[in-house]
Amino acid sequence: MTVRQNDLLHGHGHPICGAVVFETALGQMILGDALDVMKTLASKSVDLVVTSPPFGLLTKKDYGNVAADEYVDWFLPHAREIHRILKASGSFVLDTGASWNRGLPTRNLYQFKLLIALCDEVGFHLAQDFFWWNPAKLPTPAEWVTVRRIRVKDATNCVWWLSKSPWPKASNRRVLQPYTKSMETLFIKGYSRARRPSGHKLSAQFSKNNGGAIPPNLLAVANTDSRSGYIEYCRSEGLQPHPARFPREIPEFFVRMLTDPSDVVIDPFAGSSMTGAVCERLERRWLCIDVVEDYLKGAIGRFIGGSEEATDLAKTRNIQYQIPRVGSLWDGASHTSPLRNDGGKSKRAEQSPRS
């Protein structure tokens, strides 16, 4: 079975390759290789590609992943197709997770090599770099963080917002966040327009209430989904939930900021099709692609019943995350044991600070 003809997405005289696993009036989930499917899409037909492909990790995952040292060569053919199908005003949002060098407490540079290749070799522009901070992330990698205590926990992903031209369509008014209590107080009491230590002088517009604050490029979203309607659906159907799922807020942030209703959004490494579920609710047309049939079958649980998205929104709407101020526990004197000259290379537990 192939996807029915769609004049917007087709430009080569034949339908999209791959099997339809699920479809709505707005979108479709396609079982197939992302590269093959994208080759059948019309040039300049897509407004946004947002995806979280398998990362270049040391450990092989059930969903398939390429080694970090091979990652750039593997991904570039996909990137060239993404560049081709994007409109001039379109964007490509890529979530990438870090990888460590085998047996060493040092980072592999594959994320940054990929970013440079995407810009220098494919022709993308880096519109902005984002960092997704997961407050619920466990202290990993354990060997370096909790055993040898020579690194801090790895709790952020790089999210590259790339564009086909330097001027992709976008509006940060779509993704405003609540003002801080101190800012709300300034609206009431006013503020000093004196020049700040940085040399910046605030304008009169600073005191204007715009309905919310402009968000930073740090996205704080805890990835703690364990009892959602999607999980329950997978269990009821005897399907294994995807082990590395997007939290809803990550694709939704970019779908809201970078697209309008009826725009076309594609996720070529869809997994549990969270991108499609977001687009369905926000009335964007969407196409989600994956090579694992069971993941797409489980993703149907995101679309049936209609209650999961509303429940998720209600649960998370008022959650506020806080990061302790750096130095909150510093007391002016060092009470830790001396640093080890070998940098923790010898595998022995660090002594207790008061031992």
What does this protein look like?
The chain has a 9-stranded mixed beta sheet, sandwiched between helices. The longest helix has 15 residues. It has a domain of 242 residues: Vaccinia Virus protein VP39 (Rossmann fold, 3-Layer(aba) Sandwich). It starts with 18 loop residues before the first strand and ends in a 39-residue tail after the last helix. It is 26% helix and 16% strand. By secondary structure, the chain is of the alpha/beta class.
Structural class: alpha/beta
Can you count the beta strands?
9
Largest sheet: 9 strands, mixed
Q: How many helix segments? A: 10
Q: How do the helices and strands follow one another from N- to C-terminus? A: EEHEHEHEHEHEHHEHEHH
CATH architecture of the domain at 27-192 and 213-288: 3-Layer(aba) Sandwich
Shape, per Cα inertia axes: globular
Q: What would you give as the CATH superfamily of the domain at 27-192 and 213-288?
A: Vaccinia Virus protein VP39
On the 0-100 scale, what is the average pLDDT? Answer: 84
Q: Spans of 5+ residues with little confidence (pLDDT < 50)?
A: 1-8
CATH class of the domain at 27-192 and 213-288: Alpha Beta
Separation of the first and last Cα atoms: 68 Å
* Helix content estimate: 25-40%
% residues in beta strands: 15-25%
